[in-house]
Amino acid sequence: MLDLNHKSGFVYGRRTTDPEPLGTRINTRLDTALEAERQKQRPRDYLGASRIGEPCARRLVYEFTKTPVDPGKDIEGRTLRIFEAGHVFEDLAIRWLRAAGLDLRTERRDGGQFGFETASGRIRGHVDGVIVDGPDLGLAWPVLWEHKALKASSWNDTAKKGVQVSKPVYYGQLQIYMAYMRLEAALFTALNKDTCELFHEHVPFDAGAAQVLSDKAVDVLRAADAGDLLPRIAAHADFYLCRFCPFAARCWTEGQP
After folding, report:
1. What is the SS3 assignment for 15?
2. Can you list the positions of beta strands (E) in 30-184?
3. Does the structure show a pLDDT above 60 at 186?
4. Is the confidence at residue 235, as pLDDT, over 60?
5. What's the CA gap between 126 and 49, in Å, rounded?
6. DSSP E strands: which ranges in 59-216?
């Protein structure tokens, strides 16, 4: 007769000698594997257009020169999982928009991604897509298409305030893309990861804003080449953007103001 009493050292899926729950041990291995994969990837040798809208130019210099982040500020596996999930949501949004009759192109004929490069390839951008035709929605085709998957609180703020106010980095990304892709408008789509609600915003091209961003990118390249740092965005280390910056400790101990 089988003895089904649990005498083998297991308690609800966990060995009594194990210090951590099963889920924690699995997730630790997952995150370690994702972090190892990221370490093997070739780092960017250019300034990405998606980052030019970053408010702090000094942070961009750090990023472009591959300056090590502060201890404990490396991108963790959980964040890498969020990035990958964002790609899945993007694929869903592409399918939904196409089903709605929008002629959304995400690849060139050769299979490559739409994008651009300038400054001898030191500034580059890769766009999510271009909508070249579609139903009468009050938009003049073609338009740039950019997608972001956001948590509920961030999505609500974006839907309420618009991308320019709520997400200036994304807004800068749109303007730079439109400038170099020679498009007069963009459709910005934000997906609420909690509810799958979709927010769509028509964003016109602003030549003045794009020029300011382009000039900033050139300043970043020049500072990096000269071994200089551009001014900090704030006068005090407790500024809210500084508190979340992975270079904050280094930045506020550097000699340059």
Report:
1. strand
2. 47-48, 103-105, 115-118, 123-126, 129-133, 143-150
3. yes
4. yes
5. 8
6. 103-105, 115-118, 123-126, 129-133, 143-150, 185-192, 198-204
Distance (Å, whole) CA 173 – CA 178: 9
Measured between alpha carbons, how far is 211 from 213 in angstroms, rounded to an integer?
Answer: 5
**Distance between CA atoms of 67 and 59, rounded to whole angstroms?**
10
Query: Can you tell me whether residue 143 is helix, strand or coil?
Result: strand
d(CA 213, CA 206): 11
Is pTM beyond 0.90? Reply is: no
Query: What is the rounded distance in angstroms from the CA atom of residue 21 to the CA atom of residue 185?
Result: 50
Polymer length in residues for the chain: 257
Residue 68 makes CB contacts below 8 A (sequence gap 6+) with none
Residue 222: phi and psi, rounded to 5, are -65, -40
What type of residue is 185?
A: A
Q: Give the three-class secondary structure for 17.
A: coil
pLDDT of residue 38: 78
In the structure encoding, which two tokens stand for residue 245, read together? 């910056």
Give residue for tokens 């201890």. Answer: 71
Residue bearing tokens 């130019």: 57
